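Design request, tokens follow.
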């Protein structure tokens, strides 16, 4: 599978490296490949870089790992309006870091970043997932012992099945992958972020995740 990971922050780099380790073809999309290539974290040259547009053209499946408040602009630059039928895995959060810590959500309550992207690019098949945890846990769930969960939101059943298969390849057992329903259900996982940030501050680290227990799972 050919993946285009849009975004060069820690999340994008971590997801791209994991995809490469699994044998996928990966290109990382950035606004300016030459400027990005000069950054120390890209000096080893292991992650292929391209412009947003070139990366999107190469990827069969796209991963949105850009900063959530600029995701629509980045996807517009990538030409996402012309990528009808492609799956977009949205792992981003619309956190407004300009307003200090903890950053509030810029899209919230009666909307979500996942919905905004789906509305803006109706031909793409958006699946929201993995945004409720640290990027290392996204691709290495065993960092947190025991059972814990990852969520899926999206309109296209086939797209969600494809993303579910990818999550399994990352190490997520199928019972831990909870399909919440349509893309509007992305509001809940995105609004978990203020709680996640406070927990990180309280615990002093990011190696934690959420576990959903029910009467069935606890016996």
């Amino acid at each position: 599978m050919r993946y285009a990971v849009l975004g060069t922050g820690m999340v994008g780099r971590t997801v791209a490296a994991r995809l490469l380790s699994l044998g996928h073809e990966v290109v990382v999309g950035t606004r300016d490949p030459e400027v990005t290539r000069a950054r120390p974290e890209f000096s080893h040259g292991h992650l292929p870089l391209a412009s947003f547009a070139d990366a999107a053209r190469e990827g069969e499946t796209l991963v949105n790992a850009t900063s959530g408040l600029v995701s629509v602009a980045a996807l517009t630059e990538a030409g996402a309006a012309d990528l009808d039928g492609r799956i977009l895995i949205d792992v981003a959060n619309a956190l407004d870091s300009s307003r200090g810590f903890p950053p509030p959500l810029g899209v919230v309550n009666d909307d979500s970043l996942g919905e905004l992207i789906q509305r803006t690019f109706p031909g793409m098949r958006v699946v929201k997932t993995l945004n409720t945890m640290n990027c290392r846990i996204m691709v290495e769930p065993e960092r947190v012992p025991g059972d814990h969960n990852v969520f899926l939101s999206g309109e296209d059943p086939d797209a969600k099945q494809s993303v579910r298969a990818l999550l399994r390849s990352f190490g997520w057992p199928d019972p831990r992958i909870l399909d919440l329903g349509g893309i509007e259900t992305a509001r809940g996982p995105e609004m978990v972020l203020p709680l996640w940030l406070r927990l990180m501050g309280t615990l002093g680290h990011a190696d934690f995740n959420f576990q959903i227990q029910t009467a069935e799972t606890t016996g």
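Comment from the thread starter after seeing the answer: thanks! The mean pLDDT is 95.
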